[in-house]
Amino acid sequence: MIAENFTYLYHGFGIASDPFNILLMVIGILLGVIIGVLPGLGGANGVAILLPLTFSMSPTSAIILLTCIYWGALFGGAITSVLFNIPGEPWSVATTFDGHPMARSGRAGEALTAAFTSSFVGAFFAIVMITLIAPLVAQFALQFGPAEKFAVYFLAFASFVGMSKEPPAKTIVSMMIGFALAAVGLDMVTGQLRLTFGITELLNGFDFLIAVIGLFGIGEILLTMEEGLEFRGKAAKIDPRVVWKTWKTLPRFWMTSLRSCIIGCWMGITPAGATPASFMSYGIAKRMSKNGKNFGNGEIEGVVAPETAAHAAGTAAMLPMLALGVPGSPTAAVLLGGLLIWGLQPGPMLFVEQAEFVWGLIASMYLGNIVGLILVLTTVPLFASILRIPFSIIAPVILVICAIGAYTVNNNVFDVLMMMVFGVLGYLLKKTNYPLAPLVLAIVLGDSAEEAFRQALLYSGGSLTVFWSNGLVSSIMGLGVVAGLWPLIAILFSKLRGHSAQPA
Amino acid sequence: MEQAHGAGGTGPKQRAVEIGTALLTLLFGLIVLYGSYLVGVGWGPDGPQAGFFPFYISLIILGCSLINLVQGMREEDRTLFAEWGQLGQVLKVLIPSCIYVALVPFLGIYLPSVLLILVFMIWLGKYGWPLAMAVAFGVPAFFYITLERWFLIPLPKGPIEAMLGL
Questions:
Q1: Is the pLDDT confidence value at B27 over 90?
Q2: Residue B147's domain spans which residues?
Q3: B25 part of a folded domain
Q4: Strands, E, within B21-98: which ranges?
Q5: Beta carbons of A264 and A311 less than 8 angstroms apart
Q6: Global ipTM
Q7: Based on the domain organization, do B35 and B99 belong to the same domain?
Q8: B46, B57, B119, B157: best to mutate for the A interface, most A CBs within 10 A
C-alpha cells in the first residue's frame, strides 16, 4: 500500500507543479503573508473571506490557493512579532519574547531567518508525518460506524476542554453555542424547521464563514482599536550573508527543533492548535536549554522553539481533517467547509474516492512551503512597509473586505448584518476569556456530529450504551472522557501530591 | 490587553461584564431550550425528534452558564473590563461600522464603503481631503474591477450604481 501511495504522491507532484498551480501558490503565500501581517485579519478569517473566490476553480487548485494562504499567514505572523513586537496571530506571541529583543539589538535579519527556517522545518516535519500516517489513519477510519464517528468528534471537542487554558465551563459554553447555531434551520433527518422562530432569514441556518469573518475579523479590529495600536518598528534588511550566517548556527539547536516538531504535531492533531503548541515548546525549551536563563533577552533558540512548534501544529492540523473529517484548527475548519462546498466529502473516503485530490494537496504542501520560504526571505522589507500604513486607513479597508467576504458567501446582505453581530459577540467573548476556536469548529462540525449521534442512537434504539459497545468505540470515548475531565484530574493529582489546588 | 486591567482609569468592571455575559449565554440557552421544545425533544416514530440534540445542548449551556455566573460573581471587584477612553475608541469604530452595515442593503456596498473610509481617515486619522478621497474611491474601484470584472462576482449595488448604469 505504501508503494502505491508513493506513486500517488509522485503523481500529486505532477499536479501541484503545474505552472498555474505554482502561480496560485505564489499568490496564496503573498496574500497569506499580508493577512498574517495585518492586525485584524487572521488565517481563518482570511481564508473564509477568499473562499467564495475559489468556487469557480477546480477543487485541487482552490485548495492549493487556500492552504498556501494559510502557510503564508503562518509565516506572516513572525514578521510583525520580530519587527514590531506585535503578534499578528496568537501563535506568534511566544516569538515576540526573544524575536523582538533580537531585532532591537540589530539582529532582526538573523531573528527573521531563524523564524522562517524554523517554520519551514516544523511544517516539513508535519507534512512528512501526514504523508506517512494519514493514509493509514484513513484506512483505519474506514471501519468506523456512526458510534465511532461520534466518538472521534467527542474526543476532538473534549480535548478542547482539557487543553484550553480558559476555564472549562467557558470553553464548553462557547462550544455548545456553536452546536446550537449549527442546529438552526432545516433538520436534515426529519425535514422540520427548528430554532428559526419564524424568521425566514434563518432557514438556511448560520453559515460558519459569516461567524468566522465576524468573530475573528470584526472582533479583532475592535480589540486592536481598544489597545490604541501604534506601529513603531525596526527596519529589516535581509541579505544573503545574514541568511547564510544564521543557517550555519541553526543545526546546533537540532534537539530543540526535533522536540518542538513533535510537540507541534501532537498539539496539531489533538485540536489544541498552534497557540498552545508554541507556548509549550517555548516553555520546555527554556527549561531544557543551557541558555535558558537568557531566554527573553534575544536568544535565537527562543525563536526557533515556538516557530517550529506553531508551524508543525498548523500543518499537522490538516491530518485529522483529511483522514477523519475533523479539523484540528479553525483555519482547517474553514478549509473543511470549503471541501464540502466543492462537493467533496472530507473523511476517510476522500483517500479512496478522491485520491488525486488528496495527493495533489499533500504534494502542494511540500512545494508550497518551499515556495513560501524563498518568498518570505526575499520580501520581508516589502511586508514590513505595509505595517507603516496607519491603522485609520487599514481598519476601514479591512471592514470593507470583511463585508464583501460575508456578502459573497451566499450573495445575501442579511449575512453582512449577521457578521456585525458576530463581531460584537467576538469582542465580548474574547474580553471575557471565552475561547472562539471551539465555537467555530462546533458550527462546522455540528451537523455531522449530530447526524452521527442520532444514527448511532437509532441503531441502539436510544440506548447510550452504543458508545461503549466495542473495544474501538469505548477506547476513543474513554480517551475523550479523560481529555474532557483533564482539568479535574490535574486538580486531583496536585491535591494528592499535597500542593494547593491549581487548575492546569 | 493586560495593561488595560486596573491601570489607573475608570470604566466598567470586569465582574459586571462577566456576569452580563453569563446571563446572555443563559438567555441563549433558554431560547434554544424553548426552540427545541417546540419541535419535540423526545423519541419519535423514526428515532430522535428534531429537538432531541439541541435540547441536551441547551441543558449543557444552562448548566455551564450558571457555573460561569457564580465564577463571575467571585471575580475581584477592582479589575476593569476596559477604561472608558478605550471603550470610546472601540465605539468610534463600532458605530460607523454599524451604520455602514445598515446602509449596505439600501445603497449597495460601494457608496457606503466610500463613506466609511472617508469617515475613518478624516475623523479618526485626521487626513486631508485629497488623500482621503483618493483612498476612499480607489479601494472600492479596485474591488469593482477585480471582483466584478475579473472574477465575475456580483456585489450588492444600489440606486447610484443603477443611475450610472453599472
A1: yes
A2: 84-164
A3: yes
A4: 43-44, 47-48
A5: yes
A6: 0.89
A7: no
A8: B57
